C-alpha cells in the first residue's frame, strides 16, 4: 500500500473498482468536512476558489503542461463538446473514432455529421491507418476502461491530425505527457481520487483560438474576482473555457491531487502494475499494460455479485469482470480476489 497514513485502517480491503470511482484519502474527507462546516459557518468563498486554482496547477504538473493551459470543467463530455462545437470541419472532412470507446468520448462528435463530416468508427489498432488528408481530428481514450488497452498515441502524434485524448483512466495511474497532443481531458474521480464533479481540459496553446468559449461565464474574464459585470473580452488563456467551480468538490479534490503529485505517478504506476501483472499471471492472462485486468467469466453479473459477497468489489464491463488495482491495494487484495474468483472460473 502506498500512502498508509491516508488509507490504513480504512475500508479498502478487496476494493478493485477504481475504474468506477477511486476511494478518497483521509485528507480529502477532512477537507470536505471543513468546507461543509465553513459553508454553514458563512466563511469566505474565495478559499474554495483558491482550492480550484491549486487543482489546476496540480493537474498541469501531472500531465507536463502549464496552469494557463488547463480549463476547469464538470465532465469530459463537456470538454469534448466544446472542442466539437468549434472544430473547423465541414463537408468532406472526417473525424476518426474508436468504435467501442466510452460513450462520453464518442457522442459529442456525433453532431458534426450534420455539417457533412464523416465519423470514421474503427477498431483501436486501426486508428492511425484511418487518418488521411481530410482528417481534422482523432478522438480516443488513452486507456480503455473495460480492459486497459492502450491507444497508439505515438502513432497518432505522428499522423498530423488534431488529437483529442480522454485520459480519465490514465492520469494518476500511468505517466502522461501532453507533448504533441492538441486536447486532453480527464475526470478526477477515478484514478485521481477526487470527489466527482471536477474535470480538466488541456488545450495546446496554438489551438486555443479555435475554440469558441460557448459556455463562458464570470470565471472566463481576466479579472473574475475584481469585477462581475459587463461584457469583457475573455481571458487569453485556457481559463476562458472555465465554468463556475463546484466549491466543495474543489476543496476535497485538492488534497487528493496533492497526494498523487507527492507520491509521483511513476511510483504509483510501478505499484499498480505489479499488482495487476501478478493477478493476470496467476490467471494465465496476457500481461496488462495498465492496472486494469479483464477476466472473462460466465454469467458476469452473477459472478460480480458473488465476488462482492466475498468482499471483492469489481465491475461487469463488456461481458467480463473488470479488476482495477491502485495505490491503496496490496498483495492481500490480489490473493483475496483470486480466491473469490476461483468458483466462477471452474463452474
Question: Top keywords for this entry?
Answer:
347 residues; alpha/beta; Aspartate Aminotransferase, domain 1; Aspartate Aminotransferase, domain 2; three-stranded antiparallel beta sheet
> What would CATH call the architecture of the largest domain?
3-Layer(aba) Sandwich
CATH class of the largest domain: Alpha Beta
- CATH-defined fold name of the largest domain: Aspartate Aminotransferase, domain 2
Number of domains: 2
* Name of the CATH superfamily of the largest domain: Type I PLP-dependent aspartate aminotransferase-like (Major domain)
Globally, the shape reads: globular
What does this protein structure show overall?
With 347 residues, the protein is an alpha/beta fold. It folds into 2 domains: 4-24 and 264-346, Aspartate Aminotransferase, domain 1, CATH 3.90.1150; 28-261, Aspartate Aminotransferase, domain 2 (3-Layer(aba) Sandwich), CATH 3.40.640.10. It has 11 helices and 10 strands. The chain has helices at residues 4-7, 26-40, 46-63, 76-86, 103-106, 127-130, 153-157, 247-263, 265-282, 300-309, 331-346, and strands spanning 70-73, 94-98, 118-122, 135-141, 162-166, 183-187, 199-203, 292-296, 315-317, 320-324. The strands form 2 sheets. It has a 7-stranded mixed beta sheet, sandwiched between helices. Helix 7 links the parallel strand 4 (135-141) and strand 5. Helix 2 runs antiparallel to helix 8, helix 3 packs parallel to helix 8 and helix 9 packs parallel to helix 11 (331-346). The longest helix has 18 residues, at 46-63. The two termini are 32 Å apart. 45% of the residues are buried. The model has no long low-confidence stretch (mean pLDDT 95).
Amino acid at each position: 500500500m502506498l500512502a498508509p497514513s491516508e488509507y490504513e485502517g480504512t475500508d479498502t480491503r478487496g476494493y478493485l473498482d477504481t475504474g468506477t470511482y477511486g476511494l478518497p484519502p483521509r485528507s480529502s474527507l477532512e477537507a470536505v468536512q471543513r468546507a461543509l462546516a465553513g459553508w454553514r459557518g458563512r466563511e469566505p468563498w474565495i478559499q474554495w476558489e483558491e482550492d480550484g486554482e491549486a487543482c489546476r496547477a496540480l493537474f498541469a504538473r501531472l500531465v507536463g503542461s502549464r496552469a494557463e493551459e488547463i480549463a476547469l470543467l464538470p465532465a469530459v463530455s463537456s470538454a469534448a463538446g466544446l472542442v466539437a462545437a468549434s472544430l473547423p470541419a465541414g463537408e468532406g472532412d472526417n473525424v476518426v473514432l474508436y468504435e467501442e470507446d466510452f460513450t462520453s468520448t464518442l457522442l459529442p462528435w456525433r453532431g458534426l455529421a450534420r455539417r457533412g463530416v464523416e465519423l470514421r468508427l474503427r477498431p483501436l489498432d486501426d486508428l492511425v491507418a484511418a487518418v488521411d488528408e481530410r482528417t481534422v481530428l482523432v478522438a480516443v481514450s488513452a486507456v480503455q476502461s473495460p480492459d486497459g488497452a492502450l491507444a497508439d498515441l505515438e502513432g497518432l502524434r505522428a499522423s498530423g491530425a488534431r488529437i483529442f485524448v480522454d485520459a480519465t483512466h490514465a492520469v494518476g495511474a500511468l505517466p502522461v505527457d501532453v507533448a504533441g497532443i492538441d486536447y486532453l481531458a480527464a475526470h478526477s474521480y477515478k484514478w485521481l481520487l477526487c470527489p466527482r464533479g471536477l474535470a480538466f481540459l488541456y488545450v495546446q496553446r496554438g489551438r486555443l483560438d479555435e475554440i469558441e468559449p460557448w459556455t463562458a461565464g464570470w470565471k472566463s474574464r481576466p479579472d473574475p474576482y475584481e469585477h462581475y459585470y459587463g461584457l469583457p473580452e475573455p481571458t487569453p488563456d485556457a481559463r476562458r473555457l472555465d465554468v463556475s467551480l463546484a466549491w466543495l468538490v474543489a476543496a476535497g479534490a485538492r488534497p487528493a491531487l496533492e497526494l498523487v503529485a507527492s507520491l509521483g505517478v511513476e511510483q504509483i504506476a510501478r505499484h499498480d502494475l505489479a499488482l495487476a501483472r501478478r493477478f493476470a499471471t496467476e490467471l494465465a492472462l496476457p500481461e496488462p499494460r495498465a492496472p486494469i485486468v479483464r477476466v472473462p467469466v460466465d454469467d458476469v453479473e452473477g459472478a460480480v455479485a458473488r465476488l462482492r459477497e466475498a468482499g471483492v468489489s469489481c465491475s461487469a464491463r463488456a461481458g467480463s469482470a473488470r479488476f482495477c488495482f491502485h495505490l491503496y491495494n496490496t498483495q492481500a487484495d490480489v490473493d483475496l480476489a483470486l480466491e473469490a474468483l476461483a468458483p466462477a472460473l471452474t463452474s
